[in-house]
Design a protein that fits this description.
The structure is a homodimer of 179-residue chains. The first copy, chain A, has 179 residues and is an alpha/beta fold. Chain A contains six helices and five strands; from the N terminus they run βββαβαβαααα. The first copy, chain A, has one domain (2-169): Ribonuclease H-like superfamily/Ribonuclease H (Nucleotidyltransferase, domain 5), CATH 3.30.420.10. The first copy, chain A, is 49% helix and 18% strand. Chain A has a five-stranded mixed beta sheet with strand order 3-2-1-4-5. The longest helix of chain A is centred in the middle third of the chain and has 20 residues, at 76-95. Chains A and B meet through β3, α1 and α2 of A and β3, α1 and α2 of B. Chains A, B: Its cofactor is Mg(2+).
């Protein structure tokens, strides 16, 4: 199972590809960050996120995309941009018929560290260990993207197969009716 | 000047096309709503919004897209979906090099009614009058989309020309660096 994890953001959107199955050692295929200039127009920043995510999908052909579920109780200033960047990532996956799963930050932390309240350093340390890397991926957004992908591989494989089957049958959703 | 106004939403995304210049009677070219099924997966709802907006852009070729600026102090449950639908609309415009402007609800109300605190009925009544329609457009999201387009035509035409010139030179923004 090959999963692209996306830690959404406008300034830094973490992306990481992990391959594996539950109960076997996991392999990191790639990790990085899609950046957009903070002084650009919002619509152009979203376009840059789209181009970045498209490039990752083209290069790594993931079977699933796991995106961090954004909550609005976070910092009010940044949460809108985060929600919008996540929308672009979900849209890119949906266009290709790739199933999208959303995982909350605490689900991700619990999956890789055993505690839903683990800090960034702990998540980074476990990602490094689980993927047998020489050093924790930087920046934290990149490590978080890998943690999302790992979380997705480990959570409910049966559910993933179901979701994949559903996605295959709903690649072309009902078009919005226009008048 | 032809403007597509977008009142973003996942369940109902209002869309309306208005043509005109400040100081002259305005013309409504089309109005409608892009709907997505509430029981669909979020990624597929975003895809349906994209398909709907693309269809409106194809059919009406607007020179500007005016989108309601989303604030996070609104209803926490719906605001994330609204932000995500607005991201899709902005992205569709940016891909075509169409300048996107964001207007706040109070700017729109003030533009069409003279008061930033006008209610839905008042906005609907003024949209009906300004566009010389037989009846207020339904649902309210459709009327709001027309109000957004009117607001855009009336606000700072010089600024619009500048923005259009800038957009022409930044159709291909800096790609997100990927590692």
């Amino acid at each position: 199972m090959r999963v692209l994890g996306v830690d959404p953001g406008l300034t830094r959107c973490g992306v990481g590809v992990v391959e594996g199955v539950p109960g076997r050692p996991l392999t990191m295929l790639a990790v990085g960050v899609v950046r957009t200039p903070a002084d650009a127009d919002l619509s152009h920043r979203l376009l840059a996120v789209e181009q970045g995510v498209e490039q990752w999908l083209d290069e790594h052909r993931p079977e699933f995309v796991a995106v961090e579920r954004v909550f609005s109780q976070h910092n009010v200033r940044t949460v809108m941009g985060t929600a919008q960047a996540s929308a672009v990532a979900m849209l890119c996956a949906a266009r290709r018929g790739i199933p999208v799963a959303l995982h909350t930050p605490s689900e991700v932390k619990a999956a890789v560290t055993g505690s839903g309240r683990a800090d960034k350093a702990q998540v980074g340390a476990m990602v490094t260990r689980l993927l047998r890397l020489a050093a924790p991926p930087k920046p934290a957004d990149a490590a978080d993207a890998l943690a999302l992908a790992i979380c997705h591989i480990w959570r409910a494989p049966a559910q993933n197969r179901l979701q994949q089957a559903v996605a295959r049958h709903t690649v072309n959703p009902t078009k919005g009716r226009t008048a």
